[in-house]
Specification:
Largest sheet: none
Shape: globular
Number of strands: 0
Order of helices and strands: HHHHHHHHH
InterPro entries: TPR-like_helical_dom_sf
Number of domains: 2
Distance between the termini: 74 Å
Structural class: mainly alpha
Length: about 180
C-alpha cells in the first residue's frame, strides 16, 4: 500500500486503536468499578474534580479504582499546593494512602494486565520529603519503591536518589559539626 492509498483511505488493513492498558476500564462490572475518578480526571474545574475524587474514594470497592482516585487527588493537590490551604499536606496524605494500598492494588491490577504499572506516589512523596529536608523519610520511601520494583523516571532511578539523599544528609551533618 502506498502513501496516497493510505491517505485516501484505501488501506487493505483495518485500522486498530492503541488502547492504553495502564488505565483500566472504570466501568468494568466484574470488579465493581466506578466512573467518578475518570470523570474527575477529565474535569477542568479543580474544585469540581476534587469533589468527584472524594466521592469516588467513599464509594469505591476496587483497589484499582481506589489507586486511580488517590493518584488524581495527590496530583491535584500537588498542582494546587501554592493556591489551596493544606494542599501539600493533603498531597502527602494521599501519596501515603496510595503507597499503603499498593500490595492489594497490584494484586488486583495484575489480574487485568500483564504490565506492572509505575505508581508515581513513591516518587512524588520522595520529592516532597527531599524539598522539606526530610532526607531520611525520602530514603525510606525510595527503599520501599525499590522493594516493590517501582521505577523512578529519573536517569539514576531510586538507587541514585538514595545516593544523592545520603550525600545531602552527610553534608548537612558535617555542617552541623562546625
Amino acid at each position: 500500500m502506498g502513501l496516497f492509498d493510505f491517505l485516501l483511505g484505501k488501506s487493505k488493513k483495518k485500522a486498530t486503536t492503541n488502547v492504553n492498558k495502564t488505565i483500566p476500564n472504570p466501568g468494568n462490572n466484574e470488579r465493581n468499578g466506578n466512573q467518578l475518578w475518570l470523570d474527575a480526571m477529565n474535569e477542568v474545574d479543580d474544585e469540581k474534580a476534587e469533589n468527584l475524587f472524594l466521592k469516588s474514594e467513599k464509594i469505591t470497592e476496587s483497589m484499582v479504582d481506589l489507586h486511580f482516585t488517590y493518584l488524581g487527588l495527590y496530583k491535584l493537590y500537588y498542582r494546587r499546593r501554592e493556591q489551596w490551604p493544606n494542599a501539600l499536606e493533603k498531597c502527602i496524605e494521599y501519596c501515603k494512602k496510595d503507597i499503603e494500598i499498593y500490595p492489594q492494588f497490584i494484586q488486583e491490577y495484575m489480574k487485568e494486565s500483564n504490565v506492572e504499572p509505575r505508581v508515581p506516589a513513591f516518587q512524588q512523596l520522595a520529592i516532597i520529603y527531599e524539598k522539606q529536608g526530610k532526607y531520611q523519610a525520602a530514603i525510606e520511601v525510595s527503599q520501599l519503591a525499590i522493594k516493590y520494583s517501582q521505577r523512578d523516571t529519573t536517569k539514576s532511578g531510586y538507587e541514585g536518589r538514595i545516593e544523592r539523599l545520603t550525600r545531602k544528609m552527610r553534608k548537612e551533618s558535617d555542617s552541623d559539626k562546625d
